Amino acid sequence: MAIILSTALLGCIYVHPLTRILYLDHYYYTYAPKLKSISSLSLKPPRNSVRAASIMSYDKELATAKKACSLAARLCQKVQRALLQSDVQSKSDKSPVTVADYGSQAVVSFILEKELPSRSFSLVAEEDSGDLRKEESQETLQRITKLVNETLASDGTENVSLLSDEDVLTAIDSGKSEGGSFGQHWVLDPIDGTKGFLRGDQYAIALGLLDEGKVVLGVLACPNLPLQTSAGHVQHNVQDKVGCLFFAQVGTGTYMQSLDGSQPTKVDVSSTENAEDASFFESFEAAHSLHDLTSMIAKKLSIKAPPVRIDSQAKYGALSRGDGTIYMRFPHRGYREKIWDHAAGCIVVTEAGGVVSDAAGNPLDFSRGRYLDLDTGIIVTNQKLMPTLLKAVQESLKEKASSL
Ligand SMILES: Nc1ncnc2c1ncn2[C@@H]1O[C@H](COP(=O)(O)OS(=O)(=O)O)[C@@H](OP(=O)(O)O)[C@H]1O
Ligand SMILES: [Mg+2]
């Protein structure tokens, strides 16, 4: 018995996180019944592998994800600064976002693969190198490679030889995975909120990790989001400073620090229980979410505050620290949500005590591949307010359908 117990516990402590989930399930269901008589141990079996995942540690993966997103944010900031300083004519040019998008994906992909060696590295990401491999893109590719090398060198801890154009293309193409319900998959949006990026507004670098179809960690780098929160989570004087890094690991809460590396602070969603006292976030772009429908729902809930419209998953970050209470997103008919637009944001909010669901009240399912395939829209709020919000959403959707 002693051998069984010590072998099982050692297995829990030392093996790879994914193996640990399987091992824990195997351990609890195989050995725990035999240990019942040892009352002092009081080991309770997890109900399912999600519970098992909640006692896993993804510390190394999280530290690497934070580093990758911070460096990618540095690359994006550099490009955005140059864009904003350029003349009006070049501001209508979309190439800066192209360069930053590919550059960000190459940096994150390269760091994850280099620092977390695994036989089955899998990355589901927004970009692929198809267009960049064309003859007319050679100059753009060289700009991207230069930026990627400068960014990796700026970290100081990186002891890497310069990447070639081909290395950069290969790193970008690592993001072609289809994801799914088995094994681990990184999920990346290298620049979420491309329109916000071009306007000089909000955007995010969003990175999540799926393990057996569940999001187990998430990092959101929001280079233009003010550090000062309306809920007062940051005590020291941050006044006009911008640049937030949110991060969450399953079962351990959500934290925020400045992108330049301040001490992390634990954050929590708003505790507002009365809908009329709530404020709500929605997409900046009317083409991305039905503003007339959210206005109808807000009216039904007697929400007095006007909508707060910001781009990208920065909305999830802002909600996780209580800047607002509700986030609603209703894309136009036919739009298919991608997993990289929600994976990191979803865990950042849920670990801060919030709930994310589709318009039918179902949790988002990240296990089906690159798309979410959900019902109608996405709603987010705290646990107390969710039933009221869901009721108002469903009534409004019915009224809207019957008026067509
Ligand atoms: N037609 C349509 N409908 C709904 N959503 C769409 C649509 N087109 C794009 N997208 C996705 O929206 C992502 C931008 O996030 P948001 O919609 O939250 O922000 S905002 O509209 O920029 O304010 C945006 O992310 P990025 O492409 O990474 O910028 C898209 O994935
Ligand atoms: Mg996106």
Give an account of the 3D structure.
InterPro entries: DPNP, Inositol_monoP_metal-BS, Inositol_monoP_superfamily, Inositol_monophosphatase-like, Inositol_monophosphatase_CS. Belongs to the inositol monophosphatase superfamily. Its cofactor is Mg(2+). It comes from Cinchona calisaya. This is 3'(2'),5'-bisphosphate nucleotidase. The protein is α+β, with helices and mostly antiparallel strands. It folds into three domains: 3-52; 59-267, Fructose-1,6-Bisphosphatase, Chain A, domain 1 (2-Layer Sandwich); 275-402, D-Maltodextrin-Binding Protein, domain 2, CATH 3.40.190.80. It is 40% helix and 17% strand. The chain has a seven-stranded mixed β-sheet with strand order 1-2-3-4-5-6-7, sandwiched between helices. Strands 9-8-10-12-11 form a five-stranded mixed β-sheet, with helices on both faces. Strand 3 and strand 4 (214-226) form a beta hairpin. Helix 5 packs antiparallel against helix 7 (95-115). It is globular. The N and C termini lie far apart (68 Å). Residues 126, 189, 191-196, 283-285, 287-288, 311-312, 331-332, 335, 338, 341 line the site of 3'-phosphate-adenosine-5'-phosphate sulfate.
